[in-house]
């Protein structure tokens, strides 16, 4: 019973990780500017990687590799949003304008 519950918890975490990583990839491809792309990459990709690493830690059980997996999880939670913030700040400092609805009208797109 416990092994079955553990198996399904691992499956749910992996499916959630894959779903959020897929949403992140679609967001990076579809969103119009660097600010919104950095936003989706930092949030959904961090959650997707976090869920996948949690599934790995649960699958490994109580081993030394589990400690490394949990440390990697914390590292991802710290570095992904920090990197996205640095990219957005660099874009702002170099004068990249955020996308607005008026931007498409100037180019003639709808």
Secondary structure blueprint with pairings:
Blueprint: H1 2-30, H2 34-60, H3 64-93, H4 101-107
Describe the structure.
This protein has 110 residues and is mainly α. The protein has one domain. 85% of the residues lie in helices and 0% in strands. The protein has four helices and no strands. The protein has helices spanning 2-30, 34-60, 64-93, 101-107. Helix 1 packs antiparallel against helix 2 and helix 2 (34-60) packs antiparallel against helix 3 (64-93). The model has no long low-confidence stretch (mean pLDDT 88).
Tally of distinct domains: 1
Using only C-alpha atoms, the radius of gyration works out to: 18 Å
- Counted beta strands: 0
What structural category arises from helix and sheet content? mainly alpha
Main β-sheet, in a few words? none
DSSP helix fraction: over 70%
If helices are DSSP runs of H or I spanning 4 or more residues, what is the number of helices? 4
Mean pLDDT across the residues is 88
User: From N to C, what is the helix and strand string?
Assistant: HHHH
Tell me the strand percentage band: under 5%
End-to-end distance, in Å?
56 Å
Shape: elongated
Please mark out the parts with pLDDT under 50 across 5 or more consecutive residues, or reply none. Answer: none
Q: How would you concisely characterize the structure shown here?
A:
It contains four helices and no strands. It is mainly α. The protein has one domain.
Based on the model shown, name its key terms.
110 residues, single chain
